[in-house]
Specification:
The protein is mainly α. Helices cover about 40% and strands about 0% of the residues.
Length: about 180
């Protein structure tokens, strides 16, 4: 999933989209489909560039970058220390990763690894976003065919339900 796609995804989740644009990037032309999303989220401090006034919209996003955006979006700051062997306290995303893991939005890999520089997959992004939003999959409805499906994601895929939940428009009920 690209940095532009992630910006658009989080922009779509914003309740208030009428935000003064105070940040723009040299590599985000105004006419691009993701420009408003990128500039809005950057102006809100939810996303950051890659340096030299650039955003790198077509570059794939890492697990650390996604955790940082999700944490900034949710405005969460408290976390327990997770102690991943590949995320030292000096890592730029250390706090963001700890928040995301502490809230149960994302898990690490075996061997006490997080994989901060690994590219996040669409399935991982959908799962993490669902967890961040508290969206639980209605497995019965999805099994009845009420969720969106994709030819490249079969029922046996580990994130089958998460992807269906994340991509299906529907009403929801907030419960305790």
């Amino acid at each position: 999933i690209t940095r532009a796609e992630v910006a658009q995804m989080f922009y779509n989740l914003l309740l208030e989209k009428d935000v003064p644009i105070t940040v723009k990037f040299k590599d985000v032309p105004e006419e691009m489909w993701y420009a408003k999303a990128v500039n809005t989220l950057a102006s809100l401090g939810m996303i950051q560039g890659v340096g030299d006034g650039m955003y790198a919209p077509d570059r794939a996003i890492t697990r650390a970058e996604f955790a940082a955006i999700a944490t900034r979006f949710a405005k969460e700051t408290t976390a327990a220390k997770t102690g991943f062997v590949d995320v030292p306290e000096t890592h730029w995303a250390y706090e963001y990763i700890n928040v995301a893991v502490s809230y149960g939005w994302v898990n690490g890999y075996g061997g006490n690894r997080f994989g901060p520089d690994d590219l996040i997959t669409r399935a991982q992004a959908a799962t993490m976003t669902n967890r961040m939003l508290g969206r639980l999959c209605d497995r019965e409805a999805i099994d009845r065919g009420e969720g969106r499906s994709f030819p490249d994601v079969t029922y046996s895929h580990w994130a089958w339900y998460q992807i269906a939940e994340a991509t299906t428009e529907h009403d929801f009920t907030i419960s305790e």
